[in-house]
Design goal:
This protein is mainly beta and about 120 residues long. It has no helices and eleven strands. It has strands at about 15, 20-25, 30, 40, 50, 65-70, 70-75, 75-80, 95, 100-110, 115-120.
């Protein structure tokens, strides 16, 4: 994937909620997330949104983001690049500007990682 450069002002910071497992009342393993974020990432080290090219779901699918005069607005699925070495795993959740997104896939590239995110709420 060719990393499309975005202006620094368009990058987005996020709060990371790592997926944990615990047992429910029946003893079955279930996913859970902490009330407070595990990590807060500032915009300077945050996500650079990219247009989705290779992943689709049956849910709310759009162009990923829409370029407007004041920046890029996310839709139902996001493809984003992250240049930092922050530890992420599939099904971790990111709060980006008040919207909750779930990491669905991570691809490693020499200079960055490509994240495929799907909106949760």
């Amino acid at each position: 994937m060719v990393l499309r450069e975005t202006p620094p002002g368009w990058r987005r910071g996020f709060d990371l909620y790592r997926r944990r497992t615990e047992r429910d009342a029946l003893g079955d393993e279930t996913a859970c997330y902490a009330e407070q974020p595990d990590v807060r990432v500032e915009a300077a080290d945050g996500l650079a949104f990219q247009h989705p090219r290779s992943w689709n779901s049956g849910g709310n699918v759009g162009a990923g983001e829409e370029v407007l005069a004041w920046g890029e607005q996310p839709g139902g699925i996001l493809e984003a690049c992250l240049r930092t070495e922050l530890e992420l795993a599939p099904f971790d959740r990111l709060d980006i500007g008040g919207q909750l997104w779930e990491v669905r896939a991570i691809q490693r590239w020499p200079s960055h990682r490509k994240l495929m995110l799907q909106r949760v709420r």
